[in-house]
Amino acid sequence: MRNFADLIRKLDSTTKTTLKVKALAKFFENASDEDRVWTIAILSHRRPPRPVNTTLLRKWASELSNIPLWLFEESYHIVGDLAETIALVIPNTESHSDKSLSEYLSEMIALKAEDDDFKKTYVTDHWRQLNYYERFVFTKLITGGFRIGVSQKLMTRALSQTTGIDEDILAYKLMGKWDPNTISFEDLVLKEKASDFLSKPYPFYLAYGLETAAADLGAIEDWSIEHKWDGIRSQTIIREDHLFVWSRGEELVTDKYPEFHPFATEIPNGTVLDGEILPFPDKAIGTFKDLQTRIGRKTLSKALLEKTPVILKVYDLLEWKGDDLRQQPFVKRRAILKDLMSSLSSKDLPIYLSEIVECQSWDEVAKERDRAREMRSEGLMIKRKDSTYQVGRKKGDWWKWKTDPLTIDAVLTYAMRGHGRRSNLFTDYTFALWNANGEELVTFAKAYSGLTDAEFRKVDAWIKKNTIERFGPVRSVTPKLVFEIAFEGIAKSSRHKSGYATRFPRILRWRQDKKIEEANSLQDLETLIPV
Amino acid sequence: MTKPLLVFNKNGIFCEQANVYLDPWYPVDRAIISHGHADHSRYGHRKYITHHTNVLIIKHRLGPINVTGKAYNETFVINNVKFSLHPAGHIIGSSQIRVEYRGEVWVFTGDYKLEDDGVAVPFEAVKCHSFITECTFGLPAFKWTLQSKVFEDINHWWATNKEDNQTSVLFGYSLGKAQRLLKYLNTDIGKIYTHGAIENMTEVIRPMVDFPETTRITKETTKKDLLGNIVLAPPSAHGSTWIRKMVPYVTASASGWMAFRGARRRRAVDKGFVLSDHCDWQELLTAIEATGAEKIICTHGYTEIFSRYLREQGYDARTESTQFEGESSESETKEEVDKAS
Ligand SMILES: [Zn+2]
Ligand SMILES: [Zn+2]
């Protein structure tokens, strides 16, 4: 635990990716196999079920720190993280724990079955005995959700440095369902087993925004054009009569889309589809707003399912008859996909093919792009016909060519009160994008229109609860909300901190489906500059 | 019912009997000033009264003003109201302001802390009936560690950065925090460089406090000069072009807000040291108890939460809104920093 808490402290005390990876790699090197597995599990959000409910934790913490419960709650509200609040309010000690991370986790798993008195003694004894950082980590393990600026990618990179196993292969191994309590490091990381792969998705291949004029891509004959759908990127897996739907955030969302459940029996086993989940109200593609009514809902009412059904628009086939097709050329994968889709056509399933648009020239491509609004798409995807399915965001073979206006997903960082009838609401916002290493948010634009009054009220209430600091009329807020910002033009500018000036920035919509990690970077912004 | 001795009006904290304001935020005839931070000592008053040490500081900040200096514990009477200044321990030259009329005593703290930082004259509790207290860090989540431990960490951080061939850039407000940091930096590790805003302020204070040697960063300063050494800079220098000169560098911030993990990430500094010139939760409670006051008025900070807690403890506590700003932007205006860089 001491080592793990030390690792968390190190990760916490740098914003530099290389140092984070170094700290992780060093930890992996020295840790026991059990601790390695648990660390991977925790950093990839696979924590054991919560052994104690948070209501009890709050009560015990307020007792132990000798403050009334309401005061604890207010503090929690301001600190924003339960484990951190608990670690802060409980009296300090300098002592250390010699128990290992995996010992703690075994204890916590066993703790779930115990009665409340036993739990209370276990938890409060540890709070008293652990120093600040260990107390924080200990409580974090109970409450779950470690967010310490370490993406799965960084962890994989560190693990790759320690084990010498290729990063992409590791990413694949660590995906999907596995139980840190039963799996060994050998089985998880070092050895390969066929049965592990039932639910495992492939890493997504992501496109870059087009950086040059489309015509500069060369002969049109080499490229395949389709619309870029505006839904949730997902991977749908049918293996051994089981269905698994993964979202791009590497989340298993099968339960959220009951419409797709018939796929398990209707689509042949050994099939993995890459496609977009799209809202389909009134038998036509809806807007992203429609889809938002489905995102984040814990229970899906019948009425909601009827009002906003979803479909899967498929555009690629990654596995067929159990074979990994990713090294096959795109056109070949599409040919098989097309056959599969026509074999399904009589079955009335909510699955559709994302059609290839036949274009004889780049002019025709541009014209098709102008139809994006009418098609309810975000623009076009331009894929090289012989492209393999690669891992992560790679340049060269796949490009997205979005429609105007230029849009980018940015994080809300500062807010100011509005003017006139909005002077009692925080409606003037400052937005930031990630810097090159994805570790720091850099201010890039201010915008104050584009949301409905109801949305402004909602965001205003959120801002008041999530203010970090006040600077006169301006408040800095916890970076948490992502908005799609539209603007008419962009140019380099030395007067702006980000290095770019945007023209007429405005809020296009609140991306409640996106986490700040998914917001765009300054590099993404750079790609929007017309050449 | 008689009028309270001190009231909060649109200009600031007002003593009608003496026609005097305490730390007013709009221009008034006569102002008693607790300390030199920009949110407490503003431009435009006709007459300033403050501690002798602070006279030098606010003259430096505000230019030629009409100001009278007083010693700690020196009583001065204005229209039968007795005033005196008492050490607040916040920054050098900071005072609590005691106001007495017909046997009734009020104390306004300005900003304060209880730990003796070795630069400011340490806080002294003053008995009173009504106590107007700041509560910038009035939440039980704030618990400071002894500064000796914090400075050990800071010097260790500097030494480690030096080993890694990096320049250390440490952010702290030009008045108060910067000098407190400066006082305890270990010059066995390397040289101390300063941003112009900090150097200017330190020059004012140097005659009164024994500080290690500093070197002002100028256009002539090279990266090579700075490498491995430490740079003291105001927080607003972060992200400015000025700081590019330090490459390769590591940044840290010293502030009470660094107690929150999120604050450090949001400021995008590599390291956060929890070091504040304000009271933590327990210090506030200790100070209030020591005054013996029954009436407590909470100004800037977590006022609602803190006063509710005090009421539960049996105090007659309420809040008043002011234009004091706490540790976020108190020490200098942006223009003051820009001018000096
Ligand atoms: Zn102050
Ligand atoms: Zn203040």
UniProtKB/TrEMBL annotation, chain A:
GO terms for biological process: cell division; DNA recombination; DNA repair; DNA replication. The keyword S-adenosyl-L-methionine does not apply. The keyword Chloroplast does not apply. It is an enzyme of class 6 (ligase). It comes from Winogradskyella epiphytica. GO terms for molecular function: ATP binding; DNA binding; DNA ligase (ATP) activity; metal ion binding. InterPro entries: ATP-dep_DNA_ligase (IPR050191), ATP_dep_DNA_lig_pp_1105_fam (IPR026333), DNA_ligase_ATP-dep_C (IPR012309), DNA_ligase_ATP-dep_cent (IPR012310), DNA_ligase_ATP-dep_N (IPR012308), DNA_ligase_N_sf (IPR036599), NA-bd_OB-fold (IPR012340). Transmembrane segments: none annotated. This is DNA ligase (ATP). Gene3D superfamilies: DNA ligase, ATP-dependent, N-terminal domain, DNA ligase/mRNA capping enzyme, Nucleic acid-binding proteins. It catalyses: ATP + (deoxyribonucleotide)n-3'-hydroxyl + 5'-phospho-(deoxyribonucleotide)m = (deoxyribonucleotide)n+m + AMP + diphosphate. It comes from the Bacteria. Pfam families: DNA_ligase_A_C, DNA_ligase_A_M, DNA_ligase_A_N.
From TrEMBL, chain B:
GO terms for molecular function: RNA endonuclease activity. InterPro entries: MBL, RibonucZ/Hydroxyglut_hydro, Xnuc_lig_assoc. Residues 331-341 have a biased composition (Basic and acidic residues). Residues 318-341 are annotated as: Disordered. Coiled coil: none annotated. Transmembrane segments: none annotated. NCBIfam families: Xnuc_lig_assoc. This is Putative mRNA 3-end processing factor. It comes from Winogradskyella epiphytica. The lineage of its organism: Bacteria, Pseudomonadati, Bacteroidota, Flavobacteriia, Flavobacteriales.
